[in-house]
Amino acid sequence: MAFLTNLILLPLLLLATFSPTPSLCYVSPYAARVQQSATQTSAYHTYIVLVEPPPPGADEEGHHRWYETFLPSSHIGESGEPRLLHSYTEVFSGFTAKLTEAELDAVAKNPRFVRAFPDRTLQLMTTHTPEFLGLKNGTGFWSDACYGKGVIIGLLDTGIYASHPSFDDHGVPPPPMKWKGSCKAVRCNNKLIGTKSLVGDDGSYDYDGHGTHTSSTAAGNFITGASDHGVGTGTASGIAPGAHIAIYKVCTNRGCKVSVIMAGMDAAIKDGVDVLSLSLGSRTSVSFRNDPIAIGAFSAISKGIIVVCAAGNGGPTPRSITNDAPWLLTVAAGSVDRRFDAGVHLGNGKRIDGEALTKVTKPTSKPYPLLYSEEHRFCQNEDHGFVAGKVIVCQATTPANQYSDIARLMAAGAAGVVLFNNEAAGYTIALHDYKAGVVQLTSTDGITIAAYAKSATNGAVATFTYNNTVLGVRPSPVVASFSSRGPGYIAPGVLKPDILAPGLNILAAWPGPSFKIISGTSMATPHVSGVAALIKSLHPDWSPAAIKSAILTTSDTTNNMGDSILNERHGKASAYDRGAGHVNPARAADPGLVYDLSTTDYAGFICWLFGDKGLVTIVRNSSLTCAKLPKVKDVQLNYPTLTVPLASTPFTVTRTVTNVGPADSTYAAKVDSPSSMTVRVSPETLVFSKVGEKKTFNVTVSCQRVGASEIFVEGSLSWVSKKHVVRSPIVAIRGVGGHAPAPSP
Fold first, then answer.
1. Domain 129-336+476-589 sits in which CATH superfamily?
2. pLDDT digit string, tens, across residues 579-625
3. Alpha-carbon dihedral of residues 288, 249, 129, 342, nearest 10 degrees?
4. Where is the signal peptide (predicted)?
5. Which of 9, 23, 186, 216 could make a disulfide contact with 125, Cβ separation 3.0–4.6 Å?
6. Hey, which CATH number is domain 38-119, 3.30.70.80, 3.40.50.700, 3.40.50.80, 3.40.30.10?
């Protein structure tokens, strides 16, 4: 079961594309301020404040008292509410409080103050996907991994519909002894072991649906006969159906406050989750040292918790990626080999294949007149008397407007609506439940029908037919148009997104109890969270970086036709569209070699990027200072993908791999690259004699005869043994490999 696009940090709005609230950037209290009116200066705002930790030995109450010492003498604001809203002990040392700007300036003068950020609102960004990912009940890797039993997935979302059958605990053992959380829901059991609301209400009930969808996608139990009103019928399950679920309600249908997200993450770390799944994010990338989520996630990975995040729904625009810190596993969204087929039969004998969330058992064969008008191109036809009995052809806009516009047309007697994509969406059709009589098409097919409607001399007519669910669709997967693209702004030398997973038209649990089909990187994220849980179940001692490496280096770069994975326009997808490739769970469980990273490795990278101030803010380890650490450029981080400058001058990066396969094994380097890219690997052979042994190698890349318009060139390096292929993309891109960008305030 997979989710759509809402939760993900930028929303498509549960089945649709979102219009997320822009994130605000914090202005340092040390920076010059613009003169403001007295009214503005005295207004209360919510701030997340990072401070030095209290004296050793402080318990949770001790932390709370310590944080109160930073606040004004009055701990109650003008509204009568406490100033201190949230206390954090795990994600970082700090708190959320309501302060005026003048009060924040006073807090910042405390010598133990570190940083402060204004609170922001972020946005929420199947029956078939386990099979599409090669997971079959009772056999192979899924069975070997015990379906993720013993692993706890924590989801930060809109809550959960606890009584849904997807959260039944048949076959699920009690949680491990390390679990410290609690559950207060309509039904708590061995599947749903934790619920906590951080949004001010007393319950974890999911009024939005997003959290129910993502939770069931990650770890829902097996349910037969699942469908969305008869569409997509089959046996539904999450990717790790044996895993435990802990839900932290940090979002409402209005969005997700960063301060509340951090409270949920803090609680999840205390409770003992193994995987954190965040299908949410900001509209744009935020510098890691200014992003509480990235800072809190660093604390999580330092405790062995892998953090999986949505790449965002800002595609297909380049550099739209969010959640791009190297310690996060950032997930892009693609299609699966399933469509919900609907045909538009034209009077000229042509059939146009579209899709619809409609099951019609006895479709009418009666043709209806087609109506298309450039003046009313977007379904906003005010002359409703003119639409009666006609099929209206129009172009999609935003889902919120589209629902009301189509409802008005149908209420005015329209026989149906043909809704076609804008050009940017290409071949991606993100389905929405517009009810019967609406067929969605690609932009190309929409233009074809519009041209026919305008030019038919004897009157254009059309008939709809519905063929329901079709499997084996080719090519699949295809990168969805809404999926955010790299490279990132902050550390372009680290390839983002990391991985591609199912995120288009995903069916999963919904309050009701029912199932719903929606789309988004929100849906792709829990697929990878489930895969991470399966790997954690098999390899409980692996670090978050090792699990990420296993997922990336074993991913698929070809589709079900044996060709390269395509983008939304059916051109070859780049690494900035799909990351390392499409997730392959069975191979990820046995990668052979992994590229591991420790907290100290990341600390060296943070020193290069932000210096000591960044180290204090993000790593918060007094034993580490930039003076004692080597500064590690983004391109030299021991990441499982390789990024180098696009230049004719040879550039060398160094990587270290750890043997997690057979004790005695030999790997040979295999390079695939275009003629313009020269790659040399030294040594060309790696010989291991024991498990856990490490080997270091160098990769030198130069690019010749590259056109001035080319921004990047791609190749790959694979380490090949008798049993394993460990593949890493090589991306040569302009503008990387030099000095760190100037630190943001």
1. Peptidase S8/S53 domain (3.40.50.200)
2. 999 999 999 999 999 999 999 999 999 999 999 999 999 998 888 99
3. -110
4. 1-23
5. 9
6. 3.30.70.80
